[in-house]
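User: Could you check the structure of this?
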Amino acid sequence: AFTCHQNFPCLVNELERPTRPRILSAIGWAAGVACLTNLIIGEAAYAAYGSMIGPDILATFPRSTLSTVLR
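Assistant: Sure, the predicted structure tokens are below.
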């Protein structure tokens, strides 16, 4: 949310007719697609790994230098 606002004027300029309803629609669609994508990935991970996934997903990675750097 803190870095998205800087892209907002560029996105509004890209709209064919940047009216308020069209801007709100674009924001709604973007948020909806992002939420749906996260939900699908989360459900797929839970289906694949089940109860092996803890509340903190980063804590379930192996303790190694590579996983620490990639976090």
